[in-house]
TrEMBL record:
The keyword Oxidoreductase applies. This is Alanine dehydrogenase. NCBIfam families: alaDH. It comes from Adhaeribacter soli. SMART domains: AlaDh_PNT_C, AlaDh_PNT_N. Keywords: NAD, Nucleotide-binding, Oxidoreductase. Residues 149-297 form the Alanine dehydrogenase/pyridine nucleotide transhydrogenase NAD(H)-binding domain. Substrate binds at residues 15, 75.
Amino acid sequence: MIIGVPKEIKNNENRVALTPGGVAEFKKHNHTVYVQATAGLGSGFSDEDYVAAGAQILPTIEDVYGIAEMIIKVKEPIASEYNLVKEGQLIFTYFHFASSEELTHAMIERKAICLAYETVEKKDRSLPLLIPMSEVAGRMAPQEGAKYLEKPMKGRGILLGGVPGVKPAEVLVLGGGIVGTQAAKIAAGFGASVTIMDINLSRLRELDNIMPANVKTQMSNHYNIKEAIKTADLIIGAVLIPGAKAPHLITRDMLKDMRPGTVLVDVAVDQGGCIETCKPTTHENPTFIIDDVVHYCVANMPGAVPFTSTLALTNATLPYAVLLANKGWQAACSQNDELRLGLNVVNGEVVYKGVAEAFNLPYTSVNNVLEAYA
């Protein structure tokens, strides 16, 4: 198969979807890999590194899309890329369709095969291609929150861990999954007083057993959230419903209950956000203020630490990408339940229920589509 790796062009996105080591793995299976010039520089990989591993370098993004049967990316195609996508071309990347109706319609119109990292799912309901970036984003969230709590950043002027004789910051984490767990762990390491909320009592029991003494668990419901935000200095949104739009746990009218300079970090923003007032921002302009509350809503947080993020992501994605190249997407998805759940849009049809429901679009069973290709 011919694999193409374009350079990421989303604002301040420095990750790359394939390392030179990944190129060597594809070459071992007799596949051809084209990499756009300078695609890996942001992650520390030169064009020479890719050539040495067996890739061929192409000068433009148009060249890469034009020749590849499978495009491997990190982030979803943006508007300038839509027309580069060919009918029947396999795009393997993070899509987060439920947060963008424009992207969804664009891929439907292009009749691409859209296989989303974030909905590849194991039998135990874990999301193997989302976990690495969830771990990075979760660990970054308190780090970014601590920065924006500083007064020059319009925060409350509070040191996350406090000092002897002065209480630490109060951190509220909404969601006890991968992101929330990592966020709570790092915030606790800073010395903050942390409360983590979830709707799953069994999960709260697990967290209560493994977290340090400065992390408290609490059942997530509207009343508890509304009370907790009154004293929280940093609130981290870490709620995920795979492939679907995140629910709004904090609404616009709840901002009035927060103290001026409170910081919100919505890690779920690339899936619509669990804080109603959060809209996607970039590393270039990461924050905005509503009702004296600082909102940090960068949709590609791990892009700020590309060396770590690229290696963590490609460790997880490469085995699936090689399987797709070896068998073709039809056979691979028919034989592998995890990959089958990654299919979101196939040849103009929405085959993932969460995406169809987000925009009231017709839904076609992925099994029916695969049978048609058999």
